[in-house]
Amino acid sequence: MVRVKAPLMSMSAQKQLGHSLIYKQKGSRSIVTAYNKPGGKNPSPASPTQLNKRMIYNLIIARWQTFTGEEKAVYNDLVKAKNLNMSGWNYFYQQSLTDLPTYLGLIGYWSFNEIVGGKVLDLSGNGNHTDLLPTYPTDSPTLIDSIGPKFGKAGDFDGGNYLRTGHDLSLNLTSEISGFAMVKKSSDGEIFAKGYNSGYRLNINDGKLRVLIKGGTNILDSNYVLDDDTWYFVGFVSNSVGTYIYINGELKNSNANAYAIDDTSSADIFIGQSGGLTVSYLTGSVDDVKIYKRTLSPTEILNQYKLITKK
User: Which residues share a beta bridge with 202?
Assistant: First the structure.
């Protein structure tokens, strides 16, 4: 950097000289306070791999932040017992990366940041990759920009295309479930579903979020109407106590219907379509679909939303 001798000339300028030097006046002197490297080039965008790592990091830290002091102490003690030069948090983070189903309870996680061989990959580690249908690439969901740069891409659905997994035993749930996604709708339709009449579904009906457990046995609607062309963080939790609907980290409705999830069918998971004989499609965009085999706490759900909206 070239040394600039004070006083700078043209003090009537807007405290900036060209595109490189920013200064302020202190007494009779002009002091350079910042230097912008010439070139004006923006940083390269993050790769799909980098974006996925960032999203997984957010899920892990949102989980860690819900731990009690005693739960965190377990990992701190493990670090000491193993004589590792790291914190309990770093140990939990590294272990979670190697086994997301065990440490986070994920059975499926689709980030939509890239298409590989006509599939959107499952990041949970269970291998529940989704095919783009009905015909890739001519008639199938496409990738568009998501809610912001740190989210990379999202899936865009035209009301007639969808994603579908093959069936795997990891998709079977027998006691509880949490399912969440980012969605921007243009009309009513299905966000994701497994087992039209037996498993679970999350959709938009009359502009409201709706969850169905065991087909129509347990139906719960939100008390909030979703605007068109607006991104929302939506989802539900269902267990033997009741069912709960969340929008943008806030509880929007619940019931005390004790219909524990019990889905051991061979049904596939659909995204953007309901499956079943009466097919419902979505017109809109979906991102960051996550399905868990455990109950997410209200704190963890809010933590995830805060990380989504963090600048």
Answer: 192, 211
